[in-house]
Amino acid sequence: MLSALRSSRSRQASDGVTAPRLSHQAIVRALGASGRGLTIEVADAVDSTSSELLRRAAKSDVHRHVLAAESQTAGRGRRGARWTSVPGGSLTFSIGWRFEQGAGSLSALPLAVGWALAIALEKHRFRGIELKWPNDLLHGDAKLAGVLVELSGDAAGPSLAIIGIGLNVRLAHAAQRAIAQPVTDLAAIAPERSVDRNALLARILGEQVRTLEVYASSGFASIRAAWQDRHAFHAKPVQVLLPDGRTASGRVAGVDTDGALVLESGGRTLRFVSGEVSLRRP
Questions:
Q1: Over pLDDT 70: what percentage of the chain?
Q2: Helix (H, G, I), strand (E, B), or coil: what is residue 163?
Q3: pLDDT in tens, 187-231
Q4: What whole-number distance in Å separates Cα of residue 186 and Cα of residue 72?
Q5: Which segments of the chain does DSSP mark as H helices, in order?
Q6: How far, in Å, CA of 166 to CA of 80, rounded?
Q7: Of all helices (H) and strands (E), which one includes residue 171?
Q8: Contact 170, 20 (CB under 8 A)
Q9: Which of these is catalytic: 11, 21, 76, 78?
Q10: How far is residue 42's CA from residue 27's CA, in Å, rounded to a whole number?
Q11: 143 is catalytic
Q12: Residue 145, SS3?
């Protein structure tokens, strides 16, 4: 069993900058009433916050349970990719959330979670954050954050979602070069500012709670237009890479209420389901 860490001691990020340690008390204090019954836990190191919550879910209720970790030894991204995090320089955490709906009604959940993350960052005065279907946050053409949602439960409901989020706060250049795609961090977006990770995590969690409650009551439809407004590829030509190696080209027309990407291609309308494709500029 993991123990919660409540120390305010500092941890040195990978670039030598000393960053205050994630603190249970500081996060709870910053959340205030917006926590709405969340259970907050901070761990020094785990293999993966999502993997740990999945293990616990087999034995106990993890609804509204948040597990954040200073470091992950086996952080996971979409389609089996590894998520790179550094102590003091990342925010990596997972949220357990129970829905009365079946998994078929939750296909757009990664989009909603990503949108809530972008809103929280904007409220924290980080500008120019865009979304990339289905689960990434971008600044410019570089990846800033990612979302991984894993679902379990009965087809007709209820369902349990384990929502994993990884956000780059300050990554050393060596760590960025080791990642097989362009990445960025909050330090690059606003180099003049220091980031209080506890206050930022609290803001993100408050926004996630609001969005998850809206999604539970009315689905993705209520935020679909707002999501499209932030989509980096909306109304632009793209190439979709399919799992079998084939490609489809067209212009992004938007997303459906179930989170599927809609592409206009040669007079046809094509739909692609979240998790099945990789999106690239042509």
A1: 88
A2: strand
A3: 999 998 999 999 999 999 999 999 999 999 999 999 999 999 999
A4: 19
A5: 24-31, 49-57, 109-123, 173-177, 186-189, 197-218, 224-229
A6: 15
A7: none
A8: no
A9: 78
A10: 9
A11: yes
A12: strand
Q: How far is the C-alpha of 27 from the C-alpha of 242, rounded, in Å?
A: 41
Mean pLDDT calculated for residue range 93-101: 97
Q: What is the set of domains in the chain, with CATH numbers?
A: 10-228 (3.30.930.10), 233-280 (2.30.30.100)
How many CA within 13 A on the CB side of residue 214? 17
Coil, strand or helix: which one is 251? strand
For residue 80, what pLDDT band results from cuts at 50, 70 and 90? low
**Is residue 159 a contact partner of residue 98, using CB atoms and an 8 Å limit?**
yes
170 as an active site residue: the answer is: no
CA distance 87 to 92: 10
Whose structure tokens read 């999945």?
Answer: 54
280 is catalytic: yes
The one catalytic residue in 11, 143, 170, 224 is 143
On average, the pLDDT of the chain sits at: 88
Label residues 186-215 b or e (16+ Cβ within 10 Å = b). bbbbeeeeebebbebbbbbbbbbbebbeeb
